[in-house]
Specification:
Shape: globular
Strand content: 25-35%
Distance between the termini: 66 Å
Structural class: alpha+beta
Strand order of the largest sheet: 1-2-6-7-10-13-14-15-17
Mean pLDDT: 94
Bound molecules: adenosine monophosphate, magnesium ion
Low-confidence stretches: 1-20
Largest sheet: 9 strands, mixed
Length: 328
């Protein structure tokens, strides 16, 4: 009898152990993308992530008339909230670091191409030239908590906001004692802690030619941010040519190179997001030079012909495909 009772107790413990290990999941649409959240722990932790994502979306949105960024673009100046001030500080320094390949003042160009409107079109030369004259972080003037923009300059944090949001949510989860979570915000993935069953995080990298399937996967343990930028994520076609949404702030045109996508792996979601956009703009050769001098991220490059290249440490995490290794 004792044995049976002990058996039942063990079974109950095992079952309740399994129940505890089941994560809470949620989907939400924010920052113009579908987000999938998986959190092991209290359901309230998942709720707090949803609230935080909606709060940040409402601050950073470039199209929501109630957002702080919208007000800045409309009025040309504003007193900054803590989050907007923090993200803009990072954005300006990442823009300088990437030689302007990532540029948070790209919005006049985004508007000229119509990427945030219903009608996308190739802009006339004069329109592009005018938009280009307002692009550059030298048009931003910080004074204490206040930011003033030169006339015609407008902000777009779309290339960095999801990474920042993921990083902030990871912090929030850690503060609440959550030891494992996976936040997938469109092309941005943030892993928090270790999976409770001890297995690796496995994240697919989209095939640029067929984005709903994975061309390869990255397997790793512990905290990391993984961000992919690619021309396949948003584009329109005109007269048989495809124009995508990642713009070269030098030319005003969609960045053109042999790259179809760049995936960046880093400790910081904000940095990973800005770098992924910047490396895509730079093209493979310049991106590799940047990686060699920078040393605070790893990357996987997919070329338009389907060839893959991975930086040394990314190569050790890459599975399910053939690839070339880029050494230091
Ligand atoms: P991502 O998907 O992170 O590469 O961000 C792309 C989005 O950021 C675009 O939809 C634009 O809103 C904006 N963007 C486009 N080109 C740039 C650029 N060179 N630097 C910063 N933001 C950009
Ligand atoms: Mg980005």
């Amino acid at each position: 009898m004792k044995r049976i009772l002990a058996g039942i107790l063990l079974l109950t413990l095992l079952l309740s152990g399994c129940a505890q290990a089941e994560p809470h999941r949620a989907e939400l649409f924010a920052m113009d993308t579908l987000m999938e959240l998986t959190v092991w722990g209290e359901e309230s932790a998942l709720d707090s992530v949803k609230t935080e994502l909606r709060r940040l979306d409402a601050l950073f949105s470039v199209t929501d008339e109630r957002s702080e960024i919208y007000a800045l673009n409309r009025d040309g100046h504003a007193a900054l909230s803590e989050d907007v001030a923090a993200l803009l500080r990072d954005a300006v320094s990442l823009s300088e670091q990437t030689g302007g390949a990532f540029d948070p003042t790209v919005y006049p160009l985004v508007l000229a191409w119509g990427f945030t409107t219903d009608t996308q079109t190739v802009p006339a030369d004069a329109v592009l030239e005018n938009a280009l004259s307002h692009v550059g972080t030298e048009h931003l003037h910080f004074s204490g908590d206040t930011l003033t923009l030169d006339a015609g300059t407008m902000l777009d944090l779309g290339a960095i906001a999801k990474g920042y949001a993921a990083e902030q949510c990871a912090k929030l989860l850690r503060e609440q004692g959550v030891t494992a979570a996976l936040l997938s915000l469109g092309g941005n993935v943030q892993a928090v802690g270790e999976k409770p069953d001890g297995s690796a995080w496995v994240i697919g990298i989209a095939d640029p030619n067929e984005p709903s399937s994975a061309i390869a996967r990255l397997e790793f343990y512990g905290e990391k941010a993984l961000v992919t930028s690619g021309g396949y994520q948003r584009y329109f076609e005109q007269d048989g040519t495809r124009y995508h949404h990642i713009l070269d702030p030098e030319t005003g045109f969609p960045a053109e190179s042999e790259l179809a996508s760049v995936t960046v792996i880093a400790d910081s979601g904000t940095r990973a997001d800005a770098y992924a956009t910047a490396l895509f703009v730079m093209g493979l050769e310049q991106a590799v030079d940047f990686w060699r001098t920078q040393g605070d991220f790893e990357a996987v490059f997919i070329l338009s012909d389907g060839t893959l290249y991975a930086t040394e440490d990314a190569a050790s995490l890459l599975r399910g495909c053939e690839f070339g290794v880029i050494s230091r």
